[in-house]
Amino acid sequence: MQFHGAMKEGLAGSLRNWWVDAGASSIFRSNSYFAVARDTDSLVIASGAKVINPELPGGNVFYLGGHDYYHTTDITKMNALRLYLNAVFVPAYPNSTCELFVLPNSISGNVFKDVDQDSTLSAADSAMISIRVNLYIDVNRDGKVDAGDVILETILTDSLGKFNFNVGILGMFVMDIEMDDLPAGYGMTTDNLERAVFTEMGQTDPDNDFGAYWAVLPIELIDFTAKPVQSYVDIHWETASELNNDYFTIERSGNGTDFEWLVDINGAGNSWSNLEYYYTDVNPLSGTSYYRLKQTDFNGVFEYFPMVSVTLNTITKEIFEVFPNPCYSDKFYIRFNEEKETSFLVTLYDVYGKEIFSRIIPVENYGESVKAIDLDERLAPGIYLVIGSTEDKLYKQKLIIGDGRM
């Protein structure tokens, strides 16, 4: 913007009042720039004027984007902070004083008790008062609250659960609420994150709502056990209900502190009836070991349940053993003892006596052997009979095919 005539301040330390000398041929030119030294250590810069109907007899209106800096002439510092001004009225008489009116941006919303747990503010929900809401400048411009962001203001929700921020700058912003302010046992039913973007002054963003309600446990666990069975450990757990349950994880430890992953088992998602799960640790640790159950939601949130211990003083070497049992994949193992080189014929039958699978397994080593049996395809859940035979021995054992995931 360019002034014709000398510009004079009306109020020191502010841009609120100003005028130009009488006799100027014209007052403003749009899309130009001016810089005026206020004193020895302060600078005023304004730019981007837009004249609306400059010939209007009663006065002119223009929009001014500008900066008001104190005690610095450092361009870097001036670029770090901005004061945006708009809606300036210019009287018809150039010697008159003019007022600048700042129209801030507005960010508002609600913190509500999500009674119907639908993650949306509705008539069934109620206000949550005196909850702290934080407003940050999204410095990293990633739409998240992180260490690099700058907090602008924290306010409390009012008696209607509402909040409102007046923001005098442009840019990207993020908000969250203080979880510690929620009643005991409450969790979020919406994301604890809202975003706003302002590209010019006078904008509003009213739809920033945070919902919370009594936190429903993802699963209701009835029991979790680990028991030694011959030379392996049989693990069993049962749930009474499941909510958004993605999968379970079994972990094992030799000291009760350092745990290792064993297996993931699919959860039921949502269930309101009793469900049982099984897993067999076919290579358990000798002595005392510890097992624990981990549950993970579809959104990645997880929880651990108390660990259980089991002791295997000796490992009994069975002549013929099928594991894991139940089996949740298209592979199972057989363990057996032989005193000479031979071969095993492994045959699988369904409950109707129909042969499902047959394979000869060579035995090269004396003593205990473990062989993997890869089925040609995944079997339907149910009970099957495994028969192992050599030239002079015959063994039988039932195999349960489950519908989980190894």
Topology (elements, then pairings):
Elements: E1 7-9, E2 18-20, E3 33-39, E4 42-52, E5 59-69, H1 75-80, E6 83-84, E7 86-91, E8 100-101, E9 105-113, E10 126-127, E11 132-137, E12 150-156, E13 162-167, E14 171-177, E15 186-188, E16 194-198, E17 204-214, E18 219-229, E19 232-253, E20 259-271, E21 275-281, E22 287-297, E23 302-304, E24 308-312, E25 320-323, E26 331-338, E27 342-349, E28 355-363, E29 367-374, E30 382-389, E31 394-401
Parallel strand pairs: 9-17
Antiparallel strand pairs: 1-2, 3-4, 4-5, 5-6, 5-7, 7-8, 9-10, 9-13, 11-12, 11-14, 14-16, 15-17, 18-19, 19-20, 19-21, 19-22, 22-23, 22-24, 25-26, 26-29, 27-28, 27-30, 30-31
CATH architecture title of the largest domain: Sandwich
CATH class of the largest domain: Mainly Beta
Structural class: mainly beta
Give the rounded overall mean pLDDT.
Answer: 75
Please describe what this structure looks like:
The chain is mostly beta strands and 406 residues long. The chain has four domains: 7-101, no CATH class; 105-214, Sandwich (Immunoglobulin-like); 219-312, Immunoglobulin-like; 320-401, Sandwich (Immunoglobulin-like). The protein is built from one helix and 31 strands. The chain has one helix at residues 75-80, and strands spanning 7-9, 18-20, 33-39, 42-52, 59-69, 83-84, 86-91, 100-101, 105-113, 126-127, 132-137, 150-156, 162-167, 171-177, 186-188, 194-198, 204-214, 219-229, 232-253, 259-271, 275-281, 287-297, 302-304, 308-312, 320-323, 331-338, 342-349, 355-363, 367-374, 382-389, 394-401. A hairpin with a 5-residue loop joins strand 19 and strand 20.
